[in-house]
From TrEMBL:
GO biological process: methylation
A Pfam family this chain is assigned to: Methyltransf_12
Source organism per UniProt: Tessaracoccus lubricantis
Domain Methyltransferase type: 78-173
Listed name of the protein: Class I SAM-dependent methyltransferase
């Protein structure tokens, strides 16, 4: 991945570039061994590694038993930035009535095919998350988003307002994502040192990147340009509070579902990556925030 620079860019340019990138990624991911969509159709108990890790903290935030077979039973759940639907299907298998939302047409088409192949019920809506409150009908007991989310858009206040709009009174918002401290580290350094290279704080400009690789496939992309924004945790929490939500919990974690740094090793259960033991407690890799309307 090559950083082009910190740039001023319009929301329209961002949507066009990022959507083209994710529309191209979606069929590659759907066909990849990494996502292994056929296994979801063949095994009705199959859960994604992301939802496997989120299951316990999400259930506890909802006052549900995480050991229950269906800890989300009876709940209407909206999955923002659902991509090709593996996490959405996993949430449905925990008992939720699911709606997935994403701005990528190709991702939603792959998600619908996955649900059809698995014989599962779900609704999918095309929208960017900053405007989901205007485009997704209904209200939900849970709004969920996890891994690879808030860096993709500029306006956290609009995002948080959409979440508040989409939650029923008493409803719960759950997010787990890559930690800003982790995203600031040099991901191309080969000597195993943890060295800060990128911004962790926002200044209004976007970070522009050119990258022909995608994390779940060896195929090369042609729509290589993407834009994202660093958002510190303080900004995320302030946006949620400003939208009228009450923060009910926060945690920081040491596992990621992708190999973000060259020295990372696969966790013993094969579900996630972590830093080598001598670095494991030096920097958080994820954060989790729960909030309630």
């Amino acid at each position: 991945m090559s950083k082009v620079g910190d740039v001023e860019v319009s929301d329209e340019q961002v949507r066009e570039a990022n959507r083209a990138n994710w529309d191209e990624r979606a069929p590659l991911h759907a066909a990849s061994a990494s996502y292994d969509l056929a296994q979801y159709a063949a095994d009705s108990s199959k859960l994604s590694s992301v939802v496997t890790d989120d299951r316990e903290p999400l259930a506890r935030a909802l006052g549900r038993d995480p050991e229950s077979r269906l800890p989300l039973e009876g709940l209407d759940l909206l999955h923002l930035q659902c991509h090709i639907g593996t996490d959405t299907l996993s949430l449905a298998r925990l008992g939720a009535r699911v709606t997935g939302a994403d701005f990528s047409t190709a991702s939603l088409a792959a998600a619908r095919r996955l649900f059809d192949s698995a014989g599962a019920e779900g609704t999918f809506i095309e929208t960017d998350v900053q405007h989901a409150g205007d485009n997704v009908p209904g209200r939900f007991d849970v709004v969920y988003t996890s891994i690879g989310t808030v860096t993709w858009f500029r306006d956290l206040d609009a995002w948080a307002r959409s979440i508040a709009t989409l939650l029923r009174p008493g409803g719960t918002f759950y997010i787990r994502d890559g930690h800003p401290a982790m995203f600031a580290l040099d991901d191309e350094r080969t000597d195993g040192e943890l060295v800060v290279r990128y911004r962790a704080l926002a200044d209004g400009t976007s970070e522009a990147w050119d990258d022909e690789d995608t994390y779940a496939s060896d195929d090369k992309l042609t729509n290589v340009r993407t834009y994202d924004w660093p958002h510190p945790i303080s900004e995320i929490i302030t946006a949620l509070i400003g939208a009228g939500l009450t923060i009910t919990g926060m945690a920081e974690g040491i596992h990621l579902p992708w190999e973000a740094l060259p020295q990372m090793v696969l966790r013993s259960d094969g579900g996630a990556y972590e830093l080598p033991e001598h670095q494991r407690l030096l920097v958080p890799l994820t954060y989790t925030i729960t909030a309630q309307r």
